[in-house]
Amino acid sequence: MAIKPAYVKKTGNLLLERYPEAFTTDFEQNKDSVTKLTNVESKGVRNRIAGYVTRKKSGEAAA
Question: What keywords does the record list, in alphabetical order (predicted)?
C-alpha cells in the first residue's frame, strides 16, 4: 500500500495546528506524540507523519 504524501502533509499540518506544544525537533518524541494523538495503526505512516512534523519544526527553528 502506497502512502499518499497529501495524507501525510494534511495530517501533519492538522496536528501542528491543534497541538503545537506536543511536537519538537526530536523525531523519537514526535513518533510518540503522533501515536498518542492519532489512531494511525501503521508504523510506516506514523513514521512518515512524525518525520514530516520534525522537518517542519526544524524549519521553524532555523528561520
Answer: Ribonucleoprotein, Ribosomal protein
Architecture of domain 6-61: Orthogonal Bundle (1.10)
Ordered by start, the domain boundaries in the chain are 6-61
Residue pointed to by grid coordinates 518525520: 51
- Whether residue 33 contacts residue 19, with contact meaning beta carbons closer than 8 Å, is answered with yes
Q: Are the CB atoms for 25 and 53 separated by under 8 Å?
A: no
Residue with cell string 506536543: 22
The predicted model scores a pTM of 0.90
- What's 21's DSSP letter? G
Q: CB–CB of 49/40 below 8 Å?
A: yes
